[in-house]
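task queued by scheduler; priority normal; single chain, no ligands, no partner chains; default sampling; output format set to structure tokens
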Amino acid sequence: MGPRHPVDDGWRRGFIAFLSALAEDERQRMVKRANDGRAAARKRGVHMGRKSKLTELQLRVARERIAKGESAPSIAQKWGVAHTTVARAVA
């Protein structure tokens, strides 16, 4: 292999810049498709995120117990969840 010609480096940099632009464009399209998919799911009423640790019944019971003066940590300990889970749910 002989010494490199200056044109080689310019061509390579241009090619790398071209591939970089293609990758950036594809990334933007991927983000748009993902956002569109999430928006469509929300429109259909799909729940996003983590499943709740407490049922609707447990939420009602927790609200009633806290209203009567019981502490969130004592309720949480009985149900096997973190006290913050109960406190956040009734807030």
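post-processing summary
- The mean pLDDT is 91.
- The radius of gyration is 28 Å.
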